[in-house]
Write a sequence for this structure.
């Protein structure tokens, strides 16, 4: 048996500890009450939203290489091809940033994943990107890929004769079976004449 007088000081019922314990018991209850009230209000606010969200859910994606494009875009190269980004170089079509491809004897590509699985409409989809050949016209391709086995779903490769940013648009395709697709711009050359092509403002829209 331990006599009361022998108890360690840390176990003694000090007045200060008692007051602290009372505060600690009350504070969580007050917080819980506030949380429940807030939850009820948020619940009421969102109760009527699902139908509106479903109607407003966009079946489109857009990316203008802004912010940190390396987190979203995946450069691919072969031969002497190179692919990278211009950040705040004054070369973008929109915003501050753009991508670029470079090749003389090889190819370079930039691709980006687009999660389409949650889109309410995706039976007729079209991708676009703007490309700017530097120092003369160039043939640039825009493709949509199924990453499951890497099947190319559609491709278009127009010759861009101008010196500014020019739009490339794919044909319309059905993406209803797919959860994610990749949109890819690719530029290849085999004559050794090295050339840059800038890229900006990719989009994928479905209806
Ligand atoms: Ca941009």
């Amino acid at each position: 048996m331990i006599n009361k007088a022998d108890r360690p000081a840390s176990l003694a019922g000090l007045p200060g500890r008692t007051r602290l314990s009372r505060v600690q018991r009350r504070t969580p209850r007050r917080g819980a009450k506030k949380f429940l009230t807030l939850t009820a209000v948020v619940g009421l606010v969102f109760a009527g939203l699902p139908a509106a969200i479903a109607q407003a859910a966009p079946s489109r994606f857009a990316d203008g290489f802004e912010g940190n494009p390396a987190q979203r875009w995946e450069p691919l190269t072969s031969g002497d091809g190179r692919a990278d980004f211009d950040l705040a170089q004054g070369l973008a079509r929109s915003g501050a940033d753009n991508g670029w491809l470079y090749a003389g004897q090889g190819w370079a590509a930039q691709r980006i994943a687009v999660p389409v699985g949650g889109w309410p409409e995706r039976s007729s989809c079209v991708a676009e990107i703007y490309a700017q050949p530097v120092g003369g016209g160039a043939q640039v391709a825009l493709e949509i890929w199924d990453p499951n086995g890497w099947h190319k779903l559609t491709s278009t490769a127009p010759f861009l004769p101008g010196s500014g940013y020019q739009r490339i648009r794919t044909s319309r395709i059905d993406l209803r079976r797919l959860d994610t697709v990749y949109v890819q711009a690719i530029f290849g050359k085999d004559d050794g004449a090295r050339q840059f092509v800038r890229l900006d403002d990719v989009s994928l829209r479905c209806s």
In short: Residues 1-54 have pLDDT under 50 and may be disordered. The two ends are 81 Å apart (CA to CA). The first helix runs from residue 15 to 47.
